[in-house]
Every structure is written in structure tokens, then in C-alpha cells.
Amino acid sequence: MNANLRGRVLQTVVKKWFRDKDSGFLDNGGGPDIMVRKADLVNCQFLKVGVTVEFECHPDKRGLIAKKVKITHQNKSSGQHSGKRNIRPFRPGVMT
């Protein structure tokens, strides 16, 4: 991770969430996914795939870890999907 990104507030989309493990992964573009744990969630108890979050990214021995993770509420004004969400096709047999 670039040293000047450490501690800065970043935004991305939830890629996977495992309720049984209380953890998941955030999308990191072309790089390795960013791990997030329930203990690091600020305004919620779990995350849903496709939701946009703000977070601080920190290096860890296992990779990148998200801290102070907050759900952003940018698409609530219209009550409908604005078309900005990256909708992925359904893939049978893959848990998200």
C-alpha cells in the first residue's frame, strides 16, 4: 500500500460478506481485496454486497485491513437505484 494512503478516508464497494465469520472483503480495483471485520464497523452490524462504504486502510501481516468502516448513504434521495451501482450477473454456486 502506498504510504500516503495510510489513514486517509477511502471509498469502495463491499465485495463479499460472510455473516457466519463476521467478516468480509472490500473491492480494491485491480489490487488485492481489503479485509473488513465486524469489530471495525461503525454504523452497522454487517455489510451487504454492493453497498458503498467509507473506511481507513491499514497494512497488516495478512494484507490490507479496513478500519472505521461506515456505510455511505449517497443513493437514498430517490428511493430507486440511480444506475451508478455495479450490478453483477448471478453466478450459481458462488456465495457472496
In words, what does this structure look like?
With 96 residues, this protein is mainly β. Helix content is 0%, strand content 38%. It has one domain: Nucleic acid-binding proteins (OB fold (Dihydrolipoamide Acetyltransferase, E2P), Beta Barrel). The chain has strands at residues 9-18, 23-26, 34-37, 52-60, 63-71. It has a five-stranded antiparallel sheet, with no helix packed on it. The protein starts with 8 loop residues before the first strand and ends in a 25-residue tail after the last strand. The model is unreliable at 76-82 (pLDDT under 50).
The average pLDDT value, as a whole number, equals 79
Question: C-alpha Rg, in Å?
Answer: 14 Å
Count every beta strand, where a strand is a DSSP E run of 2 or more residues: 5
The CATH superfamily title: Nucleic acid-binding proteins
CATH topology: OB fold (Dihydrolipoamide Acetyltransferase, E2P)
Low-confidence regions? 76-82
Number of domains: 1
Give the topology string: H per helix, E per strand: EEEEE
CATH domain class name: Mainly Beta
> Which percent bin holds the helix content?
under 10%
Q: First CA to last CA: what distance?
A: 25 Å
CATH architectural label:
Beta Barrel
Proportion in β-strands:
35-45%
**Biggest β-sheet, characterized?**
5 strands, antiparallel
